[in-house]
Amino acid sequence: MNENNEDKCLEYEEKYLISDQKVMFYFAQHDIYDINELKQLEISKRNKIIEAEKSKKGVTIRQLSRITGITKSVIDRTEGQCTCPLVPPLVPPLSRAYSRRNSKLPWFYSL
Questions:
Q1: In which band, very low, low, confident or very high, does the pLDDT at 22 lie, cut at 50, 70 and 90?
Q2: Are the beta carbons of 20 and 60 closer than 8 angstroms?
Q3: 38 Cβ contact list (under 8 Å, min separation 6)
Q4: Given phi > 0 = left and psi -120 to 50 = alpha, else beta, which region is 80?
Q5: Which domain of life is it from (predicted)?
Q6: pTM for the whole thing?
């Protein structure tokens, strides 16, 4: 009956934060030596770099926002880490179902 498990219910984990200089060093590993270079990149390439930095332990979204000048919401929406449901994929099936009853969609479906 006494089995070991890896449950993390109320265990305390210390926060691990790294300095802005270390984050800039991480950007330098991607050949980004000036933040303006990051802003001038193609959006998909920029998002891949931000995603790589965001996945490192101790790097926060707020810290990346402060260093890069890119808003927190844009950094949060980079691929793989979106915590909100995406509405646009739901619009076609909902619009078909809704159009059977009414011809006009609500304002929030006109994306």
A1: very high
A2: no
A3: 27, 32, 46, 49, 68
A4: left
A5: Bacteria
A6: 0.58
For residue 29, the tally of other CB atoms under 10 A from its CB is: 10
Rounded to whole angstroms, the Cα distance separating 49 from 52 reads: 5
Q: Name every residue whose Cβ is closer than 8 Å to that of residue 48 and which is 6 or more positions away in sequence.
A: 79
- pLDDT tens-digit profile of 39-51? 899 988 999 999 9
CA distance 56 to 73: 18
At 60, the amino acid letter reads T
Sequence-distant (6+) residues with CB within 8 A of 83 are 76
Is 74 in contact with 47 (CB distance < 8 Å)? no
Report how far residue 52's alpha carbon sits from residue 62's, in angstroms, rounded to the nearest whole number: 15
Tell me the pLDDT of the chain averaged across its residues.
77
Residue extents of the structural domains in the chain:
20-76, 84-111
